[in-house]
Design a protein that fits this description.
single chain; 708 residues; alpha+beta; seven-stranded mixed β-sheet; five-stranded mixed β-sheet; 24% helix; binds dioxothiomolybdenum(VI) ion
Length: 708
């Protein structure tokens, strides 16, 4: 096939790694066959703040199969900056939160380690813990890294406005629960360490681990070819990774350390609780004149993390006066971290609920109100949007959803015991590209068959990275997709962006496209021939008399993108059925319309949006991590009490994309879809609940008790 003949980008191609996965041949971190591994099990603190007065490991050490019990008493020293996210790692007897790792039992089998962990006896000196957010919210102060901003004069505009609302919205702590809990195998060879570790960014894990153990980064190898989801929690290096490496060093053999599902609720960060005060004002005609979005949240005593809840409020609507602010309270909990659309998912619940409330106040259709108040310029920085699909998404979604059947007044649509309501929201997520290198290796066989190997240290969280990289390479090289192999998830490969912040697709595919095009150009130069018709890669290699060729590219974001505000935009619609007697909410239908630039693979992209929608429904209706204010522990620590939507909780989900050709964001025009799918979903559901029942729930999740 000649170059350019194959159109693979954008096709709904099945995952090229699908067969490996469904046959069980894909190795996830602890699946790697490793000789003679020992197994670790973590002992966790049962106080939220204080000091370990003594830790008695004698009985555990004598337990069957136990090889070592490691704690602050005997742990190897780590570099000071090796105290990574998630508290001190056995370097001192200090306890900063309930569930902190305080000892690790290493044994011949997992069961022996787990059993011995139960007989490690700990005496504590407790000190007063800050664990009750609601009681202490007023003690929150301005964050060190303050992302607040303002334009115009909010107070003057708000005070003199024709119409205004002032409401506070609350979202609870949530926990990441990827299918694959965090896990690692650590293996040392002298001062070289290999970690088989599920990692959203192999480069970040390599550096963090190297720092902790005082190693050169190249002496740490991260192997992470398949990842069972991460959602942000695998975007940082948490103590479990360091503990696996520490244990392997102590016992002198490889160690497997896998977290239990219960461990997931105090080991790898969380989505923080946010209390968001929204004030909106309009003139008599419904033009927004002022927006204030003030977030109060908490962080950990060990470090500051504040998700940017107000980010969308600064840029979505064209109000001349705006004020975005944050206050944060340090608490004795594990440090919060990125969770799918950190800031935008929770912030959009507040903003898009408030927009709905304002529209209702104005007796205006909420779509009309939104359309009236958007512009093609980002009011937060005065840059034009590179492209913006809000209007197209709202209009297309309205048509797909049947928005014209919605009643403006609540409680007007009833079917037997059920109150039916329609809700809408708009959303956005930044489109970014990060520097990424890639290697293209070409091989020509005797019968002139060319195969390509594309290599870069990218991550595939289960999102489809392998497949879109193969599509990009195959199309650029003019090869069938089955002639392209993809190697990712290994720190020995060229350095690539992490799979986080929705930068993966744009960063990887632009680098791979550039690398493949470069290979063609370089080969053409080597042939010393004038080509009148575009030659195939096989013709080029043959003419250059080459059976092997390789090239490498270091791709960077294009400068032009900085002159624009680059975002993906979406619109979400939800139809809810609320049982009038029990208050149970069922989301019967969702429509999600997204403008995310070029869609690389309509099948994997659709799956991403469905995943975001499902999580948004969980956020709206069921997900809540409950902290016991007496002890500081989470009482929700399994799927029995932390409910993530299952099939029966989900109705019809209809997904559509707005076609966009945006070559400002990056050469291929990719905006990313990992995060935007969840943005606005919870607000669409909450707005539908109001439309159904007349009851405005400003405190997620919308459980039946709040509707009765
Ligand atoms: Mo995303 S929260 O950066 O995995």
């Amino acid at each position: 096939m000649a170059s350019g003949e194959t159109k693979l980008i954008g096709q709904a191609i099945n995952r090229i790694d699908g067969l490996l996965k469904v046959t069980g041949a894909a190795n996830y971190s602890v699946d790697f066959p490793i000789k003679n591994p020992a197994y670790g099990f973590i002992v966790k603190s049962t106080i939220a703040s204080g000091t370990i007065a003594d830790i008695d490991t004698a009985q555990a050490e004598k337990s069957p199969g136990v090889i070592a019990v490691i704690s602050y008493k005997n742990a190897p020293k780590l570099a000071p900056s090796g105290n990574l996210k998630g508290g001190v790692i056995f370097q001192e007897p200090k306890v900063d939160f309930y569930g902190q790792n305080i000892a690790l039992v290493v044994a011949e089998t997992y069961e022996q380690a787990r059993s011995a962990a139960r007989v490690v006896k700990v005496k504590y000196q407790k000190s007063e813990a800050m664990v009750d957010f609601d009681k202490n919210m007023d003690k929150a102060t301005t964050p060190n890294r303050n992302r607040g901003s303002s334009r115009g004069d909010f107070d003057a505009a708000f005070n003199s406005a024709e119409h205004k609302i002032d409401f506070t919205y609350q979202t609870p702590i949530e926990h990441h629960n990827p299918m694959e809990p965090h896990a690692a195998i650590a293996e040392w060879d002298g001062d070289k360490l290999t970690l088989y570790n599920a990692s959203q960014g192999v480069d970040g894990t390599q550096n963090a681990t190297a720092t902790a153990f005082g190693l050169k980064p190249e002496n740490v190898r991260i192997v992470s070819p398949h990842i069972g989801g991460g959602f942000g929690s695998k975007g940082s290096t948490w103590p479990n990774v360091i503990l696996a490496a520490m244990a392997a060093k102590v016992v002198g053999r490889p160690v497997k350390l896998a977290l239990t599902r219960q461990n997931m609720f105090n080991s790898v960060g969380l989505r923080q609780r946010d209390v968001q005060r929204m004030r909106l004002a309009t003139d008599a005609a419904g033009n927004l004149t002022a927006i204030a979005h003030e977030t109060t949240t908490h962080t950990a005593t060990t470090g500051e993390f504040v998700e940017g809840c107000g980010g969308l409020s600064a840029m979505m609507y064209d109000a001349p006066n705006a004020k975005i602010g944050y206050r944060v309270l340090p608490m004795n909990v594990i440090v919060p971290t990125f969770m799918r659309a950190p800031g935008e998912s929770t912030g959009s619940f507040a903003l898009e609920s408030a927009i709905d409330e304002m529209a209702y106040e104005l007796k205006m259709d909420p779509i009309e109100f939104r359309l009236k108040n958007i512009s093609m310029k980002d009011p937060s920085n005065n840059k034009p949007f590179s492209s913006r699909a809000t209007e197209a998404a709202l209009k297309k979604g309205a048509e797909m959803f049947g928005w014209n059947r919605r009643k403006q007044e609540p409680r007007q649509n009833r079917n037997g015991d059920y109150l039916i309501g329609y809700g809408v929201s708009a959303g956005s997520y930044p489109a970014r590209q990060s520097g990424t290198s890639a290697q293209v290796k070409l091989t020509r066989s005797r019968d002139n068959d060319v195969t390509a190997s594309i290599e870069l240290a990218a991550s595939d969280l289960g999102t489809g990275t392998y497949t879109i990289v193969a599509q990009t390479a195959a199309e650029t090289l003019g090869l069938p997709i089955n002639k392209v192999g993809v190697k990712i998830g290994d720190s020995t490969l060229p350095r690539a962006a992490g799979s986080g912040g929705s930068v993966g697709a744009a960063s990887y595919c632009n680098a791979v496209s550039e690398g493949c095009a470069q290979a063609m150009t370089e080969l053409q130069a080597k042939t010393n021939r004038q080509w009148f018709a575009a030659p195939s890669i096989a013709q080029l290699m043959e003419a250059a008399n080459l059976t092997e060729y390789q090239t490498r590219v270091d791709a960077k974001p294009q400068a032009e993108a900085r002159e624009y505000s680059c975002h993906a935009f979406n619109a979400n619609f939800a139809e809810v059925w609320v049982n009038a007697s029990t208050g149970m909410v069922r989301v019967a239908r969702n429509v999600a319309v997204t403008g995310a630039g070029r869609i690389m693979n309509t099948k994997t992209a659709r799956s991403q949006i469905i995943g975001g929608t499902v999580w948004g429904i969980g956020m709206a209706l069921t997900e809540e991590s409950v902290l016991d204010p007496r002890w500081g522990n989470f009482v929700t620590r399994s799927f029995a009490d932390y409910h993530i939507p299952a099939n029966l909780d989900i109705g019809d989900i209809d997904v559509a994309f707005i076609p966009e050709e945006d070559h400002i964001v990056n050469k291929l025009g990719i905006k990313g879809i990992g995060e935007v799918g969840i943005v606005g979903v919870a607000a669409a559901v909450a707005n539908a609940v109001f439309n159904a029942t007349g009851k405005r729930v400003r405190d997620l999740p919308i459980t039946p008790d709040k509707l009765l």
